[in-house]
Amino acid sequence: MTATAPQPKIFACQQSKPLAEKIAKAFGQPLGNVITSTYSDGEFQPSFEESVRGSRVFIIGSTMPSSDNMMEMLLMLDAAKRASARHITAVIPYFGWARQDRKDKPRVPIAAKLMASLLETAGATRIITMDLHADQIQGFFEKPVDHLFASTIFLPYLKGLGLENLTIASPDMGGSKRAYAYSKAMESDVVICYKQRAKANVISHMELIGSVAGQHVVLVDDMVDTAGTLTKAADLMMEKGALSVRAICTHAILSGNAYDKIENSQLAELIVTDSIPRDHKSDKVKVLTCAPLFADVMHRVNSNTSIASKFIM
């Protein structure tokens, strides 16, 4: 007689526990029990307080800096591997360190590749993530990667606004593919911002390719960090005659004085997901949860059914 496979188990890294609780609720079962012990020097040790032998394990945690967040994910993957889990899926709503996806000057690391190698070495047999900074990061892994698109979350909200004379915009050349995908779904025009950076997070020059006069503009990007690009682009578009400017950004890093920039800009609204835990300090920030998306995909992975519909932007 063939033994029945155990039910999947869901665990959370500490920094992503609020989102993980939403995902587990949408999935239909509670989070597993994890206790984290911390030494006086800051070293920590997660411990699964229930058996995972032979189980499919989902470990949920975004890996944004500080490096403790990635380290916690690695330790939990290693613990699950050593506890004889059958399958170990790292559910990483925001894959941190992804902006270092290539050598853009001599003698620098490719951190995204290093993170991929570490996750696999620690024990991940599958990765589920959302809106990677660069699509090619999937190729850094030898294990299967389910790269989900937050457009399945944003498009219904955007259509619900009922905006006429809509134009989709990319804040830089690198995001043009994403902007064109949204414009196809919304049957709208596209404009692109061309920017030059003096250094990381500092824009020296920006120009607009296309017309926004008399249009409601929606900027689309994968992440918002200091909000310098978005706010500068919004101000430029309003100067060029736009009726309003909104921004859709999957991952709300919002570091430094980002909230001040948003409040003082001509952005009408910044729409983000809860992939990164944040206590938002601006009424302009609208948060849409990604929990149902991840819960649905986890169900499909567990039942070995197709998730192709979640790859359509």
Automatic annotation (TrEMBL):
A biological-process GO annotation: 5-phosphoribose 1-diphosphate biosynthetic process
* Annotated Pfam families: Pribosyl_synth, Pribosyltran_N
Q: What class of enzyme is it?
A: transferase
Question: Which InterPro entries does this entry report, sorted A to Z?
Answer: PRib_PP_synth_CS, Pribosyltran_N, PRTase-like, PRTase_dom, Rib-P_diPkinase
List its EC numbers.
Answer: 2.7.6.1
Would I find Magnesium among this entry's keywords?
yes
Enumerate the PROSITE patterns for this protein.
Answer: PRPP_SYNTHASE
Top-rank taxon of the source lineage equals Bacteria
Q: Which CDD domains match?
A: PRTases_typeI
Q: Name one GO cellular component term.
A: cytoplasm
What transmembrane ranges does the database entry give? Answer: none
Which segments constitute the Ribose-phosphate pyrophosphokinase N-terminal domain?
9-123
The UniProt GO MF terms for this protein read: ATP binding; kinase activity; magnesium ion binding; ribose phosphate diphosphokinase activity
Instruction: Extract the SMART domains matched here.
Output: Pribosyltran_N (SM01400)
Q: Which UniProt keywords apply?
A: ATP-binding, Cytoplasm, Kinase, Magnesium, Metal-binding, Nucleotide biosynthesis, Nucleotide-binding, Transferase
Q: Which reaction does it catalyse?
A: D-ribose 5-phosphate + ATP = 5-phospho-alpha-D-ribose 1-diphosphate + AMP + H(+)
Question: Cross-referenced Gene3D superfamilies, in alphabetical order?
Answer: 3.40.50.2020
Which PANTHER family did the record assign? RIBOSE-PHOSPHATE DIPHOSPHOKINASE FAMILY MEMBER, RIBOSE-PHOSPHATE PYROPHOSPHOKINASE 1, CHLOROPLASTIC
Q: What is this protein called?
A: ribose-phosphate diphosphokinase
